[in-house]
Amino acid sequence: MKFSKKHAWLLIGVAIWNFFIWITFAKNLSAAHSRGEDHPTGYWVAHTILIVVDLIIGAVLGAIGLKALRARRDLNP
Question: What is the DSSP string of 6-75?
């Protein structure tokens, strides 16, 4: 599959945004847990799984974007 340069940058931008949002959410979730907020265990587990999965998705999108940028650079020296 071929990506244009703008699509590659879009994927990288989405990956960066994904990392920013989910790392911020993880910090907030950790702070809430440290404060002793009363939530069922399922709440903490579900949100932790959500964070991990979305960070993996961000890493995959970033890797695809970087690979697309490198491929375009190799085509146009």
Answer: HHHHHHHHHHHHHHHHHHHHHHHHHHHHHTT----HHHHHHHHHHHHHHHHHHHHHHHHHHHHHHHHHHH
Domain boundaries, the chain: 5-75
Each residue's pLDDT, cut to its tens digit, for the chain (77 residues) gives 778 899 999 999 999 999 999 999 999 999 999 999 999 999 999 999 999 999 999 999 999 999 999 987 766 65
Residues 69 and 75: their CA atoms lie apart, in Å, by 10
